[in-house]
Write a structure and sequence with these properties.
The protein is 5% helix and 32% strand. By secondary structure, the chain is mainly beta. It has a five-stranded antiparallel β-sheet with strand order 1-2-5-3-4, with no helix packed on it. It is globular, with a radius of gyration of 17 Å.
Amino acid sequence: MRTGFAAPATEELADTITIGEYLIRHKESTYLMKVEGDGMASEGLLDGDMVLFERRIDAKRGDIVIVLDEAGYRLVPLSKRLVGQIIGVVTASFRTYAAF
């Protein structure tokens, strides 16, 4: 992977895509959720991170899912025993390093 900034003469704007185009496959069923707490740190998700999830229930072992239970919405790795209803599967995550 190259780092740094490309010289203006070598940039090809025709090959650019937006973050949304890169991260979202099905925009009609994709939602954004903020991670609260450190309960998913072992899965690489930290407090304040954002996750994109698709509203679907066809998750497979190893996926991180959004579960709705009596306490509300929770992120859960599918490798654990689930209590609640799967409402979505995490498809991407990101974090920012600067305050807005």
